[in-house]
Automatic annotation (TrEMBL):
BP-aspect Gene Ontology terms: carbohydrate derivative metabolic process
Sorted UniProt keywords: Repeat
Cross-referenced Gene3D superfamilies: Glucose-6-phosphate isomerase like protein, domain 1 (3.40.50.10490)
Source organism per UniProt: Actinomadura rubrobrunea
Superkingdom of origin: Bacteria
Pfam families: SIS
KW Flavoprotein (keyword) present: no
Protein's name according to its UniProt entry: Glutamine-fructose-6-phosphate transaminase
C-alpha cells in the first residue's frame, strides 16, 4: 500500500522539531524583552492552531504565573469592538501565516495596545510581518491537509514562549523531545495495540476524546483529526466537563480515548475516568499515562518519557498514527479530507 503524505509527515516530526527548537531557543530572550511590561497573554488562533493555543494557555498559567486567555477573533473582525489591551502580550498562531482573520485580529490587538508575537511556519507571511517578534517554526512544507508536523512545531514554539516568560522548567526537557518523538513513532508502529484500536474504532460511529490540564489541547487536537480525516463524530472534552453530563454518551457503542502525560496532577483523574468508562461497559483506550492508565484501559499506547510541561509534543503522535491508519481502514484518503483546504479563510 502506498504511504500517505500524512504518514510521511508524521515521520518528519523529529527532524522538524529539532530544527525548530534549535532555531527558537535563542529567541526566548526576545520574547522576555517584549513582554517585560505585560501581565497577561492573549492567544489568537483557529483550528489545530487553536488547540496548540490551549496547550500554551495551560503552560503559561501553570508555569509562569501569568493569566492567559483565548481570543474570540469575531470581536475584532465582526463586532469591531475596541478593547483595552494595554499590558497584554498577543500571540497569534497560524501554520501558514496567511489566514486573514488571524492577521487582522493581531493587527487589531496591536491597535488596542498589545505587544505582539506570531507563531507561524511562514517566514515571509503577512502574520510574521505584522508581529513585533515572529517565532518561525522549521517544519518545512506540509502537503497533507491534516496538520501534523506544523502542529507539533507550534507546540515547541509555545514552549519557547513560556521559557521567555520565565517558566520554571528545565529547557533540557525540550531538547530531548525530538529523540523521544522518534522513539515513540517506532514503538507505536510496532505496538500490538495499534491495529486492534484501529479495527475497533472502525466499527463505531463516534468516540469521546478526553484529557485535562496541559494534556487538554492534545485531546482537542486528536478529536479534530478524527473528525476531519476519518469522518467520525468525535467529542473533545476536559474530563472535568465530561463528568458533568456528557459521560452519558459513553457506552458500548461509543468508546473513550483518554490522553495523559506519564506524570502530573491530572493523571489520577484520568485513570479514575478510564475505570469509570469500563465500569459502564464501554471501551477505554489510553495514550500515555504510564502503567497506571494502561492498566485501567481496555487497550493503550505508550506516551513520551517527558515531564508534563513538554509531554504534548510527543503525546499527540500515537494519536496521529491511529488517525492515519483509521482513515485508510475506512477507505478515506487522509491527505485530502473532503471539504477542507490547507489554508482556511473565515470572515
Amino acid at each position: 500500500m502506498t504511504t500517505s503524505r500524512m504518514r510521511a509527515e508524521i515521520d518528519e516530526q523529529p527532524d522538524a522539531l529539532a530544527r525548530t527548537i534549535e532555531a527558537l531557543l535563542p529567541r526566548a530572550s526576545d520574547v522576555g524583552l517584549l513582554a517585560r511590561d505585560t501581565r497577561q497573554v492573549l492567544f489568537i488562533a483557529r483550528g489545530s492552531s487553536d488547540n496548540a493555543a490551549v496547550y500554551g494557555r495551560y503552560l503559561v498559567e501553570s508555569h509562569t504565573g501569568r493569566l492567559a486567555t483565548l481570543a474570540a477573533p469575531s470581536i475584532a473582525t465582526a463586532y469591531r469592538s475596541r478593547v483595552d489591551l494595554s499590558g497584554v502580550l498577543a500571540v497569534a498562531i497560524s501554520q501558514s501565516g496567511k489566514t486573514e482573520e488571524i492577521v487582522e485580529t493581531l493587527a487589531w490587538a496591536a491597535d488596542c495596545g498589545a505587544r505582539t508575537v506570531a507563531v507561524t511556519n511562514g517566514a515571509a507571511s503577512p502574520l510574521a510581518e505584522a508581529a513585533e517578534v515572529a517565532l518561525i517554526t522549521e517544519a518545512g512544507d506540509e502537503l497533507a491537509v491534516p496538520a501534523t508536523k506544523t502542529y507539533t512545531t507550534q507546540l515547541a514554539a509555545l514552549a519557547v514562549l513560556a521559557l521567555g516568560l520565565g517558566a520554571r522548567v528545565d529547557r533540557a526537557d525540550l531538547r530531548r523531545a525530538p529523540d523521544e518523538v522518534r522513539r515513540l513513532i517506532a514503538e507505536t508502529e510496532a505496538h500490538e495495540a495499534l491495529p486492534a484500536i484501529v479495527a475497533e474504532l472502525a466499527a463505531v460511529q463516534g468516540v469521546v476524546v478526553s484529557g485535562r490540564g496541559i494534556a487538554f489541547g492534545t485531546a482537542l487536537e486528536l478529536a479534530l483529526k478524527i473528525k476531519e480525516a476519518c469522518y467520525l463524530h468525535a467529542m473533545g472534552l476536559s474530563y472535568a466537563d465530561l463528568l458533568h453530563g456528557p459521560i452519558a454518551v459513553v457506552d458500548e457503542r461509543t468508546p473513550a480515548l483518554l490522553v495523559a502525560a506519564d506524570s502530573g496532577p491530572t493523571l489520577p483523574g484520568t485513570i479514575a475516568l478510564a475505570r469509570r468508562v469500563r465500569g459502564a461497559g464501554a471501551r477505554a483506550y489510553g495514550i500515555g499515562g504510564g502503567d497506571g492508565l494502561a492498566g485501567a484501559c481496555s487497550r493503550a499506547l505508550p506516551g513520551p518519557d517527558l515531564p508534563e510541561w513538554v509531554a504534548p509534543l510527543g503525546l499527540i503522535v500515537p494519536g496521529q498514527l491511529v488517525v492515519e491508519a483509521l482513515a485508510r481502514d475506512l477507505g478515506v484518503d487522509p491527505d485530502v479530507p473532503r471539504g477542507l483546504n490547507k489554508v482556511t479563510q473565515t470572515d
